[in-house]
UniProtKB/TrEMBL annotation:
Name listed for the protein in its UniProt record: Uncharacterized protein
Gene3D superfamilies noted in UniProt: P-loop containing nucleotide triphosphate hydrolases (3.40.50.300)
One Gene Ontology term from the biological process aspect of the record: melanization defense response
Any one GO molecular-function label of the UniProt entry: protein kinase binding
Amino acid sequence: MEGNRRAATDLQLTFIGVRHVGKTSLLRSYKSGRFDSSQLSDDQQRITITEDTVQDIQVDGISYLFRLRDTFLNSFDEYFTSERLFPLQCLNTTALVACYAVDDRASFMKLREFILLASHFLPPDTPRIIVATKIDLRDLTETNSCVSTAEGRAMSRQMNANAFVECSALSGQNLRQAFEEAAKAAVKHRSQIKEKKRCTIS
Ligand SMILES: Nc1nc2c(ncn2[C@@H]2O[C@H](COP(=O)(O)OP(=O)(O)OP(=O)(O)O)[C@@H](O)[C@H]2O)c(=O)[nH]1
Ligand SMILES: [Mg+2]
């Protein structure tokens, strides 16, 4: 982070999803333009707690400053034993980016639960974007075992997601698109809030 001035932003994307789905990788690959697995989660160690970075993202040709919040929470059980860290992780969210990994069906099955849990701590109309990660593994994994695009789309519709993007932090495929879709939804949402306030005051 480049000092306090850069940290002052009212736009925040909060990344959620079970452990190991690749949240930190998305953020780091997007920021640096390259995938580096050396500092990432290895199941037992190096899990991310909460980490904020600040990044410019373009929406319709305009550059906006975003706070990107990396989180972790593996299960409901963890929520109840983690000193209720999750509500704090969700604080100040403008748009929720809910992630699952295509090679990890359990992460897909838990996503609904995660979104509902996060929504409990967010204003009701907070935009949500669903991001399927690690699509490079589709080529390597046995056919049928990965979560398909159709399944992802169906779940996104069920969850009323504003957007659904499948991407890979490793290959970079659709990575930019995932951030831009989330940023677009957040900017739109913020301007709707401002407009509502303006109408209420005048
Ligand atoms: N093949 C492939 N592996 C990936 C990709 N993204 C992340 N990984 C691997 O998946 C593992 C977990 O990645 P992280 O980014 O640490 O996942 P996380 O969701 O931040 O994990 P926690 O912080 O524990 O919640 C690491 O071993 C990464 O190298 C990807 O796009 N493709
Ligand atoms: Mg992480």
